[in-house]
């Protein structure tokens, strides 16, 4: 079954790659795997970090990065388990987390996500922050099972609790808790060691990012492993630092908006300056992060 699935996906991905401007960019990407214990694994390539539960019931996957990487991702999964991928849970709608959906959906994998993920993927979107058009996803890429508040899977001896994070990174985020393994996958509600992209345009908010961090912190213990949407494997201490940074910046920008400050005023005042050395070296540089959060909060 595993080889049949991988063969089918390679065929689909090959067709996609021949028409994809990004396929060439992905040819040198390597998928790295980290064993977190109790059958839980983290896969890192390009795009959002992937979570796996692998065991006798099959493979439960969280996110699937970009379409050209699907064969490499499944090859990495095959080194972990001989069982097929049964479910893919999308933590939100962005293409660096859902790009492999079409390949996997056509191969018979059940795609699961929050209601808003299917809604957003079903129509053309525009990411104003980056001036990028995102076309509607084909039918095979859409979630076939959706939920509003949460859903629980019982697989591989693990209780897998999926719950909605309202108005955080987007309006359709999910966080996944592997209860027995003491592992949490936070999707893009958590960017470890870097400023996060908050998609205000599609329902995100900085307050929601702080709130979901608080919820996970309340669940987590000193040994809890936390998989971020981007960045290395993390823990409760690092998540607390991230949460405090966001709260501080949010309060400063709220006060600036109340005072009628412009974006140019904030560029001059540098309200993120004390955090820039630690958090400003990732995907979003300090100036762009400030622009996105200021503009989103103002709107």
Features:
299 residues, alpha/beta, Metallo-beta-lactamase, Chain A, 11 helices, 22% strand
Question: How does this structure look, described?
Answer:
The protein has eleven helices and 14 strands. The N and C termini lie far apart (50 Å). 45% of the residues are buried. The strands form three sheets. A seven-stranded mixed beta sheet has the order 1-2-3-4-5-6-9. The chain has a five-stranded mixed beta sheet with strand order 10-11-12-13-14. Strands 7-8 form a two-stranded antiparallel ribbon. By secondary structure, it is of the alpha/beta class. The chain has one domain: Ribonuclease Z/Hydroxyacylglutathione hydrolase-like (Metallo-beta-lactamase, Chain A), CATH 3.60.15.10.
Concise synopsis of the structure shown:
With 299 residues, the chain is α/β, with parallel strands linked by helices.
Strand and helix layout:
Elements: H1 2-18, H2 23-26, E1 32-37, E2 40-44, E3 50-55, E4 58-62, H3 70-80, E5 85-89, H4 95-98, H5 101-106, E6 110-114, H6 115-121, E7 125-127, E8 132-134, E9 145-147, E10 150-155, E11 158-165, E12 173-178, E13 183-185, H7 206-219, E14 225-227, H8 236-258, H9 263-269, H10 273-279, H11 286-298
Parallel strand pairs: 4-5, 5-6, 6-9, 13-14
Antiparallel strand pairs: 1-2, 2-3, 3-4, 7-8, 10-11, 11-12, 12-13
Helix pairs in contact: 1-3, 7-8, 8-11
């Amino acid at each position: 079954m595993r080889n049949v699935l991988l063969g089918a996906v390679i065929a689909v991905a090959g067709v996609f790659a021949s028409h994809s401007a990004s396929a060439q960019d992905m040819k040198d990407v390597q998928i790295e795997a980290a064993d977190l214990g109790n059958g839980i694994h983290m896969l890192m390539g390009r795009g959002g970090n992937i979570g796996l539960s692998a065991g006798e019931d099959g493979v439960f996957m969280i996110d699937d990065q970009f379409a050209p990487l699907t064969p490499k991702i499944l090859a990495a999964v095959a080194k972990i388990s001989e069982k097929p991928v049964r479910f893919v849970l999308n933590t939100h709608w962005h293409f660096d987390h859902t790009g492999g959906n079409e390949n996997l959906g056509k191969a018979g994998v059940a795609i699961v996500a929050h209601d808003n993920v299917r809604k957003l993927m079903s129509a053309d979107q525009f990411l104003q922050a980056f001036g990028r058009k995102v076309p509607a996803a084909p039918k095979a890429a859409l979630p076939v099972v959706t939920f509003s508040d949460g859903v629980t899977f019982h697989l591989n001896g693990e209780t897998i609790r999926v719950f909605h994070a309202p108005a955080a990174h987007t309006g359709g985020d999910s966080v996944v808790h592997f209860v027995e393994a003491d592992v949490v996958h936070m999707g893009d509600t958590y960017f470890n060691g870097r400023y996060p992209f908050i998609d205000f345009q599609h329902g995100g908010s900085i307050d929601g990012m702080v709130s979901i961090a608080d919820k996970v912190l309340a669940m987590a213990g000193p040994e809890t492993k936390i998989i971020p949407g981007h960045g290395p494997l993390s823990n409760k201490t690092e998540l607390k630092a991230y949460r405090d940074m966001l709260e501080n910046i949010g309060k400063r920008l709220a006060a600036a908006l109340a005072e009628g400050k412009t974006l140019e005023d904030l560029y001059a005042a540098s309200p993120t300056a004390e955090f820039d050395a630690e958090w400003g070296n990732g995907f979003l540089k300090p100036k762009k992060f400030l622009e996105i959060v200021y503009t989103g909060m103002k709107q």
